[in-house]
Amino acid sequence: MTQQIIKIAKKVINTEIKGLETLSKKLDKNFAKAVNILKKTNGKIVVTGVGKSGIIAKKIASTLSSTGSPSQFIHSTEASHGDLGMINNKDVVLAFTFSGKTIELNDIFLYSKERKIPLIIITGKSNSKLENISTVCIEISNLKEACPLNLAPTTSTTAMLALGDAIAISLMKSKKFTKKKFYSFHPGGQLGKKLLLVKNVMHSGKKLPLINENVLMTTAIIKMTKKRFGCLGVISKNNNLIGIITDGDLRRHMGDSILEKKTSYIMTKKPKTVGENIFAIEALNIMKKN
Fold first, then answer.
1. Cβ-based burial of 46 (10 A; exposed 0-12, middle 13-18, buried ≥19)
2. Which residues 6+ apart lie within 8 Å of 127 measured at CB?
């Protein structure tokens, strides 16, 4: 029974892989035209759909927003009951409909056409109506559903999701969207932690363990212990960092009449430093390497 389940699962995945391969081969100038329209918009990208296509549309709206293209999901049915007011002439509508015959989309289509709002339709079955009412119509066709009854949207929704991601990443790259901008949208969670900047985690001002050069180590050790950082920055008369004393330095000089020495003798000169605007993970890698 276990092997039979695995066999079914592999067949589903392989069917969807073939669907993605078919989709990749079908990408043409219509895709590029759609991306350029979305890039030039001065408003937001309104993403819409119904049913499974609506779920995909909601995910794509979220991906677009987090990668530098402000977007908003509007359920097509809700649009017909007042939410059309959320769409203005500076926006672009991106609609997902695999069947191409979803009547709930008609109102938002007509609204876009009447107000000359660019309309991009992604569908599994294009027709003259969709081509006439849309600015760009991208067809996802010749896909075999992984569902053995050929009823449940499986390969088709995977293809729509992949195409939506392709649009989002194409926009992201063309807009030169950076890691720092991405971090500003994702300050929480593990992703936020990976994209923290040094200035987000560093200590500054009076919290820093600093001491002047040529001070006796008796004083330096007391200050180092009081600050509890395991290190001590040594600064010049002009407040420039000229050296560092670490716990390791203390151990290496312990038998060298350390208390009679001055900080300039014990310190490591010209310590490695980083700017406040590099990623904390990069600073950590520099620390590990050295």
1. buried
2. 100
- pLDDT tens for the chain, 290 residues long, are 899 999 999 999 999 999 999 999 999 999 999 999 999 999 999 999 999 999 999 999 999 998 889 999 999 888 888 889 999 999 999 999 988 777 888 899 999 999 999 999 999 888 888 888 999 999 988 789 999 888 888 999 999 999 999 999 999 998 887 766 666 665 665 566 667 788 888 888 888 888 888 888 888 888 888 878 888 888 888 888 898 888 777 777 776 677 777 887 778 888 888 888 888 888 888 888 88
* The model scores a pTM over 0.90: no
